[in-house]
Amino acid sequence: MKKAELDLYTDYLLSTFGAATATGLSAMVEGEVSHDRITRFLSEQDYTSRDLWQQVKSTVRLVERADGVLIFDDTIQEKAWTDESELMCWHYDHCSGRNVKGINLLNALYHCKGTSIPVAFELVKKPFQYCDLKTRQVKRKGEVTKNEMMRQMIDTCIRNALKFRFVLMDSWFSSEENFNFITGKGKHFIAALKDNRLVALSEEDREKKRFVRVDELDFPEQTAVQGWLKGYAKAVLLVRQVFTNKDGSTGILHLVCSDLTCDYDAITTTYKKRWQVEVFHKSLKSNANLAKSPTRTVRTQSNHIFMSICAAFKLECLSIKSMLNPFALCRKLLINASRSAYAELQLFRAAA
After folding, report:
1. Cys bridge to 149: 105, 122, 238, 297, which one at CB 3.0-4.6 A?
2. Strands (DSSP E) along the chain, which ranges?
3. CA 47 to chain centre
4. Residue 327: its pLDDT value, please?
5. Tell me, what's the pLDDT at 162?
6. What is the C-alpha to C-alpha distance for residues 103 and 88, in angstroms, rounded to an integer?
7. Interatomic CA distance for residues 136 and 71, integer angstroms
8. Are 309 and 121 within 8 A, CB to CB?
9. What is the 3 state secondary structure string of 146-202?
């Protein structure tokens, strides 16, 4: 990898406030680097999760501990006007409740000592087209599912000797296959459950297949209850967390934990760390210009996404050193850019 070009491009992503283009970068450095050089950099090879690990490895080794957590979640960046491809295609967005055209990105975020570092990523690609017999519409599907991607990423993190205790994930990834895989690797999980997930609170009920919905169970307040999930052979701890939303309404979150030595506070406190991946995704979109590249080929689009992840990581490192959160840091850059533009405008006015 060309480190000089990587540093320049990621700096550009953090400092530009418009479309991230090769000509824009060249203009920023007053032509010292040509736009053709940047275009070649984005198109000459595929940058993958392995390249990301090489960029973040030294920082991870400084902060990692055995009680770290590995957080998984995907995010969708809508790109409605970009030509459709195996990368830029239709995905169901749970936030908006509709299908959108854009990028679907699965991230593994390592969180330890208050620091969040992206350690692996996968782009959800759908190269195969087929006709839906019900709707008569042409649709796309991928070679592997997001759950399979997650298991591959966990395996890679373990082979990279990353120290962590828990895998944190939402209900989308709460399958028996994922649970078995994680515990089979000697790790534990804390995951959210859907309200209709079936559980039994005793071995007798499990053996006699007397399962009930988790939202119909009578949970003791602020207590972890041992139980069994339908289809999963090992005992787990179940928690019901009740919280108040900003609008005053009440929300309920059901959690499951594979580590039977934990209590209610340990489970809920650890799972709160999952929110860090939402913060990372927001920073990726707002601060690292994930969506503002006009690249057109699958390779250059994929590589721009990789650069955006590296830029978000660089911003996290700068945030720690400056003791400013990433959004405050970018706000400071924006204010300084506005001041510079204002000063330049006054010079033009004076000359006129």
Report:
1. 122
2. 69-78, 89-93, 98-112, 115-123, 128-131, 138-141, 166-169, 188-193, 198-200, 212-213, 225-229, 236-244, 250-257
3. 17
4. 92
5. 97
6. 5
7. 38
8. yes
9. HHHHHHHHHHHHHHCCCCCCEEEECHHHCCHHHHHHHHHCCCEEEEEECCCCEEECC
Task: Note whether residue 60 is domain-resident.
Answer: no
Write out the two tokens for 108.
């593994």
Q: Is there a domain that residue 112 lies in?
A: no
Who's near 11: CB < 8 A, 6+ residues apart?
311, 314
Host domain of residue 12 = 1-45+292-352
Is 348 part of a structural domain of the chain?
yes
pLDDT band at 113 (very low <50, low <70, confident <90, very high): confident
CA 62 to chain centre: 22
φ/ψ of residue 243, rounded to 5:
-140, 160
Per DSSP, helices labelled H in 199-297 are 203-207, 264-271, 275-286
pLDDT in tens, 119-177: 999 999 999 988 888 888 888 999 999 999 999 999 999 999 999 999 999 999 999 99
C-alpha span between 59 and 117 (Å, rounded): 8
State the Cα–Cα distance between residues 51 and 32, nearest whole angstrom: 26
Decide: helix, strand or coil at residue 323. Answer: coil
Long-range contacts of 111-115 (CB under 8 A, 24+ apart): 111/68, 111/69, 111/71, 111/273, 111/276, 112/63, 112/64, 112/65, 112/67, 112/68, 112/69, 112/164, 113/63, 113/65, 115/63, 115/316, 115/320
User: How far, in Å, CA of 254 to CA of 105, rounded?
Assistant: 26
Give me the pLDDT at residue 6, please: 95
Condensed to tens digits (0 to 9), the pLDDT of residues 205-263 reads 999 999 999 999 888 878 999 999 999 999 999 999 988 777 777 888 999 999 999 99
Q: Are 183 and 155 in contact (CB under 8 A)?
A: no
**How many domains are contained in the chain?**
1
Three-state DSSP state, 76: strand
Q: Nearest Cα to 22, choosing from 266, 298, 318, 293?
A: 293
